[in-house]
Amino acid sequence: MLEGLECPAYKAAKIQTRPPAGLPLQPKQIGVTMKLTGWAIALAAAGLTPTAAGATAPQAAPPQAISAPAATAPAAATPAPADAAVAATPAPSIDYAAPTPGIGVPDGRKGVQDQVTAIGQQAADFHDNWLLLMCGLISIFVLVLLAWTILRYRRGKNPTPSRTSHNTLIEVIWTLVPVLVLVAIAIPSIRLIRAQYSPPPADLTVKVIGNQWYWTYQYPDNGGFEVVSNMLKEQKDVKPGDRYRTDADGPPLLAADERLVIPAGKIVKFIVTSNDVIHAFAIPAFWTKIDANPGRLNETWVKVDRPGVYFGQCSELCGARHGYMPIAVEVVPEATFNAWIASKGGTPKGATPSAEAVPAATAPAPTGDNAAVPVEGTNQAAVAQN
Predict the structure, then answer these.
(1) CA dihedral for 313, 319, 321, 325, sign (positive or negative)
(2) DSSP three-state, residue 314
(3) Which residue among 74, 147, 184, 258 has the highest number of C-beta atoms inside a 10 angstrom radius?
(4) Could you tell me the pTM of the whole model?
């Protein structure tokens, strides 16, 4: 087998150890021959080793070429999860404002609260400047008429009473005067009711739901999220570590853990209903009061230009804890309102998801050698092509 190999060392050993013709090999010669043969085999194996190594090296190269793009693919895709994490991070919540004394808060004075809506101011003027004036004039007239009758027709002044049973003029007067009074009340009242129940196109819609005994506010124009509002308890009524009412939240029995937030200067439509019994959604500073009936949708609207905090209550006897479901409304500038919407997981009206955030959630399209690696996004393209 070794004779077929063209190894110079083996040929030299073979020639040197070959005995003369016709002479048998001696034991010493046999030992030398075996020793030289072993060296020849070792040299032959050493000469064949580089050839075998050179022959197998190209076969190991292709796996190295395939694994290189696979190792770099995660590095190229690394920014995508970072962008997705940034996009998924919720916006910081806004700080609630403290109420202004005397505005939107009951302060013990008589009469209606200061109005912050155009309809509310119209209604307050109608109440203060017209109805109260008419009530005062009528009361004075009746009091004077009663006093004159007592003094003029008393027994000492008029011992012989009159026998007159009918007086046409008096009957006409006491019929026409009440009619004129009712007409004077009806005309501004109907004008006010028409303004209240003929709202302009709304910039924002809020669904108000009454529950026993708390409120739920839903924002269908901003992604459909909802806010559950409960009354804040006093410090002595909560466990250590729980949130309690402070003066910055509002007065006792009116402060809520979550406020109904609306933008200033925008027309807001309230769709009011109930989940159980009849409640009433009432905010005195807006001149707003409407029943929340189960199975029925009632509508009202407001437009508040002044930012601030305004309080109300359920104004319908709805159960044992009727007095413990306050309404806290905060009116903020539009930019602050959009920030609050984002902090609650909603979307400002008219806004669309960022174009940069969409590719961040999917794997990047493969290119070059990496195109052969299957990724999740390529199946949809293959289906579309089919």
Answers:
(1) negative
(2) strand
(3) 258
(4) 0.63
Contact indicator for 232, 245 with CB cutoff of 8 Å:
yes
Task: Give how far the C-alpha of residue 347 lies from the chain's centroid of Cα atoms, to the nearest Å.
Answer: 7
Alpha carbon distance 256, 239 (integer Å): 17
Question: 135-160 burial, b for 16+ CB within 10 Å, e for fewer?
Answer: eeeeeeeeeeeeeeeeeeeeeeeeee
Picking from 293, 340, 285, the residue whose alpha carbon sits closest to that of residue 313 is 285
Cα separation of the two ends of the chain: 62
Cα Rg, the chain, nearest whole Å: 48
Phi, psi at residue 261, to the nearest 5°? -100, 130
Q: Tokens 């807006």 correspond to what residue?
A: 286
The secondary structure of 229-266 as a DSSP string is: E-BPPPGGGS-TTS----TTT-STTT-BSS-EEEETTS
Burial of residue 99 (CB within 10 Å: 0-12, 13-18, 19+) is buried
d(CA 128, CA 120): 12
* Cα gap 67→85, rounded to integer Å: 29
In the chain, how long is the greatest CA-to-CA distance? 192
Q: d(Cα 290, Cα 105) in Å, to the nearest integer?
A: 19
Domains by residue range for the chain, with CATH: 2-55 (no CATH), 204-343 (2.60.40.420)
List the chain pLDDT tens, one digit each, 386 residues: 444 445 554 454 444 445 544 445 454 554 545 556 566 565 555 554 444 444 443 443 333 333 333 333 333 444 444 443 333 344 445 678 888 888 999 888 888 899 999 999 999 999 999 999 999 999 999 999 999 989 988 888 888 888 878 888 989 999 999 999 999 999 999 999 998 888 899 999 999 999 999 999 999 999 889 999 999 999 999 999 899 999 999 999 999 999 999 999 999 999 999 999 999 999 999 999 999 999 999 999 999 999 999 999 999 999 999 999 999 999 999 999 999 999 999 998 766 654 433 333 334 444 444 444 433 433 333 333 33
Judge if the upstream peptide bond of residue 340 is cis by omega within 30 degrees of 0. no
User: Amino acid identity, residue 14?
Assistant: K
Under 8 Å between Cβ of 77 and 364: yes
- Please give the backbone phi and psi of residue 301, each rounded to the nearest 5 degrees, phi first: -150, 160
